Amino acid sequence: MGNLPILSLVTFLPLLGAGFILCVRGDDAVVARNCRNVALLTSMATFLLSLGIWFNFDPATADFQFEERAVWMPAFNIAYHMGVDGISMPFVLLSTLLIPVCILASWTSIKTRVKEYMIAFLVMETMLVGTFCALDMILFYLFFEGTLIPMFLIIGVWGGPRRVYSAFKFFLYTLAGSVLMLLALLTMYLDAGTTDIPALLQHNFDVGLQQWLWLACLAAFAVKLPMWPVHTWLPDAHVEAPTAGSVVLAGVLLKFGGYGFLRFSLPMLPEASLIFAPLIFSLSIIAVIYTSLVALAQEDMKKLIAYSSVAHMGFVTVGAFSMTIQGVEGAIFQMLSHGIVSAALFLIVGVVYDRVHSREIATYGGLVHRMPVYAFVFMLFMFASVGLPGTSGFVGEFLVLVGAFQVNAWIAALTATGTILGAAYMLYLYRRVIFGALTKETLKGLLDLSPREIVVFAPLLVLVIWFGVYPQPVLNVMHVSVQNVVERLDVARAALDSAALAAR
Amino acid sequence: MPVAVVPNLVPAMPEIFLALAAMALLMLGVFQREADKAAVIRFNRLAIRLGALALLLALLLVVTISARGAVLTFDGMFISDDFAIFFKVLILLASAFSLIVAQDYLELNGIARFEFVVLVLFAATGMMLMISANDFIALYLGLEMQSLALYVIASFHRDSVRSVEAGLKYFVLGALASGMLLYGVSLVYGYVGATGFDAIGAVLRDLHGAVPPTGLIVGLVFVAAGLAFKVSAVPFHMWTPDVYQGAPTPVTAFFALAPKAAAIALLLRVMIEPFGALLAQWQQLILFISMASMVLGAFAAIGQSNIKRLMAYSSISNVGYALIGLAVGGEEGIRGVLIYMAIYLVMTLGTFTCILCMRRREQMVEGISDLAGLSRTNPMIALALAIFMFSMAGIPPLAGFFGKLYIFLAAVDRGLYTLAIVGVLSSVVAAFYYLRIVKVMYFDEAADPLDRASSTEIRLVMLVSAIVIVLFFVYPEPILSSAGTAAASLFSGG
Question: Which residues of B touch A (CB under 8 A)?
Answer without folding.
Answer: 375-376, 390, 393, 395-397, 401, 405-406, 408-409, 412-413, 417, 420-421, 424-425, 427-428, 431-432, 435, 438-439, 442-443, 473, 476-477, 480-481, 484
